Amino acid sequence: MIEKKVVKNLKIFSLALALILIVLPFVSAGVGISWDKETSLIPENTKTCLTYKVYNPWPEDSTVEIALSDNLMEIVSYIQSESVFVPKDTSSKNAIPIEFCFKTPNVYEKDCFLFNKLLCKQDCIENMRIYEGEVEVLEVGDQVKGSGAGGSATAVSVSAPLRVKVQCVAHTRNYSLIYILIAVAAGIFLIINLIQRRKKKDKSKVRK
Amino acid sequence: MENRADWFNVVLIFVILAAVVFLILQNTLFNTVLSVSEKPRTFGLTGHATESTTTSNVSIQKYLSIALCTNLSTGILFGDVATLPATNINATHNYDGTATGSTFCVNVSTDSNTAIDLCSKANGHLTSPALDVIGLANETYSNSTTTNAAIPALASDVSLTTSYVKSGDAIAAGGLNYYRFWLDIVAAQPSGDYNNTVYFKGVTTTLDCGA
After folding, report:
1. pLDDT tens across A63-106, in order?
2. What separation in angstroms does the CA of B207 have from each of A68, A157, B168, B187, B201?
């Protein structure tokens, strides 16, 4: 009789354990990325910031980092490098924004008079430069997981595509610098003349 | 003499004024910089015709999330190997699931609005602390969206590489992708613990895996 009860209890316990195992999701901390822009049109030599959102709909907290592919790193001046904690059950609707900023380089040829930098004009006859890559969100909770007993540790990430089109801004030659230099030079001559004239007047007064 | 100096000063003042005028003109009238974000122009019509405008806008958002199943997140372990050479050594969780299926899997969240391709790569050869290596070509895997005793199949195994390659296609939100891993070790392999890292990445379906 007692044995039957023990067996019955064991069966109930096994059934409950099985149910728990089925209901509980057998997943580690995960990563999620949300984005609404895959292409960005930015004038050259311009700073701009893009925002991506990270989320974690899984039942374990996770810590993530954002990274850019190598071909995009060429033009990125700053990227938030700290790890971001994403609590468990953070849905895509409550995703946490992560911002990173670009400064697009000067990529188009300019026709300059002085030192290849001053008195320039830009005709924009070249094809548009496009940098293609991806924004990757990596789970870095326990760094890479796995035992040191031999075998492979594992890591997980998700990525979103990003295309940066660098826009050429055509402009005529700007002579402002020359005008400023001429005005400054004329101003200096004028001041020197006025000072000399005043000195002469003072001398002639002293003689009188 | 003084008259000459006065005239010279007048000329200098004229030059300064002219330079300032040209400077202003250069940066206003002569400035032909193409506006980058030029506002749309509107043209007024007079007479009996009337026109009104409205804006049309749509914002497309994508989101995706994946997680490793627990047994995959704890690593791909091949246990102790006592006899060499050994081929197709099974990783510990290749056959420990329901109906002897695999419990190595990647889970795609239901909170995703796009199907996902999975990519995988390794950071390099399996390497011991003494820098002996088991070539990455010896570590193989196979994948499938379902699992049982036969699949993922050893017959369709491929070697891991150091660049991402697709290891799961168009897995829908809420779906799973199962893996099995095998290892070959040659007879002359020095004893030791060998390790590397395997990466799994989720990308929007049809896109490249990237670097």
Report:
1. 999 888 888 887 776 666 678 999 999 999 999 998 888 788 88
2. 16, 15, 12, 41, 12
Which residue, chain included where needed, has tokens 């830009």? A122
CA distance A184 to A130: 42
Q: Write down the architecture of domain A28-174 according to CATH.
A: Sandwich (2.60)
Give the pLDDT confidence of B37-85 residue by residue, as tens digits.
Answer: 444 444 455 556 678 888 898 888 999 999 999 999 999 999 999 899 9
Q: Which of residues 183-202 of B touch A (CB under 8 A)?
A: 192-202
Closest partner CB to B67 (pick from A29, A149, A194):
A29
Structure tokens that stand for A170 in this block: 């055509």
* pLDDT top residue among B23 and B147: B147
Contact B76, B90 (CB under 8 A): no
Inter-chain CB proximity A197 and B202 less than 8 Å: no
- Which residues are CB-neighbours of A46 under 8 A, at least 6 positions away? A103, A104
B15 and B77 assigned to the same domain: no
CB of B109 within 8 Å of a chain A CB? The answer is: yes
Q: How far apart are CA A175 and CA A167, in angstroms?
A: 23
How far is A30 from B201, CA to CA, in rounded Å?
A: 11
Task: Check if the interface score ipTM surpasses 0.95.
Answer: no
User: How far is residue A163's CA from residue B31's CA, in Å, rounded to a whole number?
Assistant: 31
CA-based nearest residue to A63, from A141, A154, A143: A141
- A186 contacts on B by Cβ (under 8 Å): 12-13, 15-16, 19
**What are the angstrom distances between the C-alpha of A165 and each of A100, A132, B28, B59, B210?**
17, 9, 28, 19, 18
Per the structure, the complete domain to which residue B170 belongs is given by: 66-204
Domain count across chain B? 2
**Hey, which residues 74-103 in chain A have their CB within 8 Å of chain B?**
91-92, 95
Say whether both B149 and B100 belong to one domain.
yes
| Residue at B61 is within a domain | no
Size of interface A-B (CB pairs under 8 A): 221
SS3 B180: strand
What residue spans define the domains of chain A?
A: 28-174, 175-208
User: Which alpha helices (H) appear in chain B, and where do they start and end?
Assistant: 2-26, 70-73
